[in-house]
């Protein structure tokens, strides 16, 4: 009965993803459709490195979207989990000499652990205080890694993360080839999207959307809000940690900037730009943001000013994000 109450609440709300859509088949098979669209990125992106960045930062924004877009909690410190995944993967390879697959799992686990600790402290607050606590704790993690030079490399970053080739039985995959690397990373992104879709379709997904729409009603339905928010926080951190680990495999180095608060701001902009609370919106936001950065940096060093103005215009004319606004207009 409690689940029915929350699901009814979600149906009553004006949610972009819950409205009847003329594209029934694509929505029922959204993982497959998303994988097909992402697989075509190398053919349309100006260069392979940009296509890989869209994959990684789109996944990062998707993880953030679980907490912000679907649970309604605005974290200002999600760089902590992207960086934790990156350093967890890098240290597993450099310091522990683990194979790449164990390193990726290590990155996810380290990010989830950081999410469990930071989330356990942050969910005791709400509103702007929640955002400020996540920002402060993320900055604490940044300064720990910045000062711990003997392990993390400090300001110079963690170097020597080398995964030049991967052998899967008879298959030999060279990550020095950009196209091979792209499809190798796409495999993990699609797995993450499948898991993300399964979470949204589960009773847990209905509950977090109910919390977002009306926290008091969800509480009155008998749900333990604190533990549900905490679980959403940890899952969000795990997705962001996977994105960080893939970024380490891609770059072969972990920069201290991955933990800095500007990275947290970037993922907020990508999610809002694409459409928070939509399944594929974060990838649209990441693509728009990174393409804009790629184009404007070719002729000015003040690309952030242009990006900021375009971001303001998008928020003004596309309040539900570019992808979210497009879906709304199609469904009318």
Please outline the major beta sheet: 2 strands, antiparallel
Secondary-structure class: mainly alpha
- Helix content percent band: over 70%
Cα radius of gyration in angstroms: 19 Å
The tally of helices reads: 17
Termini separation:
31 Å
Spatial strand arrangement across the major sheet: 1-2
Question: What share of residues are in beta strands?
Answer: under 5%
Which term fits the overall shape? globular
Uncertain spans: 8-16
Mean pLDDT rating: 89
Report the count of strand segments.
2
Give the ordered list of helices and strands.
HHHHHHHHHEEHHHHHHHH
Q: What does the model show?
A:
- This protein has 332 residues and is mainly alpha-helical.
- The chain is built from 17 helices and two strands.
- The chain has a two-stranded antiparallel ribbon with strand order 1-2.
- Helix 10 packs antiparallel against helix 13 and helix 14 packs across helix 15.
- The two termini are 31 Å apart.
Notable features of this structure?
mainly alpha, two-stranded antiparallel sheet
In short:
Helix content is 72%, strand content 2%. The protein has helices at residues 2-12, 24-28, 30-39, 41-44, 48-70, 79-94, 100-122, 127-147, 149-152, 178-201, 203-213, 215-220, 225-251, 261-274, 281-296, 303-317, 322-331; strands spanning 165-168, 171-174. A two-stranded antiparallel sheet has the order 1-2.
